[in-house]
Write the structure tokens for this entry.
Amino acid sequence: MNDARIKPSTAEPAIRVVMMPRDMNAAQTIFGGVLLSYIDQAGFVEARRQSPRRYVTVSMQQVEFHQPVFVGDIVSFRCTTERIGRTSITVRVSVMAQRFEGGQDIHVTDAVVVFVAIDDECNPISILDDA
Ligand SMILES: CC(C)(COP(=O)(O)OP(=O)(O)OC[C@H]1O[C@@H](n2cnc3c(N)ncnc32)[C@H](O)[C@@H]1OP(=O)(O)O)[C@@H](O)C(=O)NCCC(=O)NCCS
């Protein structure tokens, strides 16, 4: 979206994580819920980069895992802010796994997460001072 208030994406991922044996399910791949948690954290890092508010996650769009992730993979979570509303911010998180074996980069999923800026009483507040 062409919104001058949105800071451009960074070249670096918001977070990068090594998958550990504790993250593995019985099928020897990584639990989807573990990745969802990192998606949430990565989106939060991006929301904070846009504007340093207190945020809660209000929604996460349907997430489809296209490829499995394995122990030892290095998983990168790249973020793009798609929209800044009055109190909400919409972040797209693109997940890539670098294979432990071979080192190739695999696209795992994209997720769209919406965060809401809140005050100390958990009431929504404006994200940008001029919003
Ligand atoms: C987030 C929360 C404060 C919003 O409260 P609310 O009374 O719905 O607030 P509003 O109706 O004023 O909406 C606030 C913003 O959220 C957006 N929003 C609300 N529900 C949404 C949804 N399901 N999907 C996307 N955006 C949503 C609104 O569009 C609005 O955005 P805008 O100001 O940029 O236009 C409240 O729902 C809440 O506390 N939820 C729990 C959050 C939480 O704890 N998450 C962690 C998981 S436990």
Notes: The chain has one domain: 15-118. Strands lie at 15-18, 54-60, 74-84, 88-98, 105-118. The chain is about 15% helix and 35% strand. Helices lie at 32-50.
